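for the writeup, i need someone to sanity check this before i put it in the appendix. the sequnce is what the collaborator sent (i think, or maybe the updated version? ugh). structure was predicted straight from it, no edits. if anything looks off just tell me and ill rerun, i have time this weekend
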Amino acid sequence: MLKYIKHNLESIDGVAIYPIISLVTFFTVFVVMLIVVLKMKKSKLEKVENLPLED
């Protein structure tokens, strides 16, 4: 089955850009979320930490 998918993808011009776009998108989202978490205030972080434990 994989050979059918590979054959169809090979016939598309410029298909090699899609893995690059997805990697850049993932990396960007990961870095942005890391920055947001690192800059979060301690009081806000403690509030978010306790959310699953509240009724």
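Residues 2-53 form one domain. The mean pLDDT is 87.
thx in advance!!
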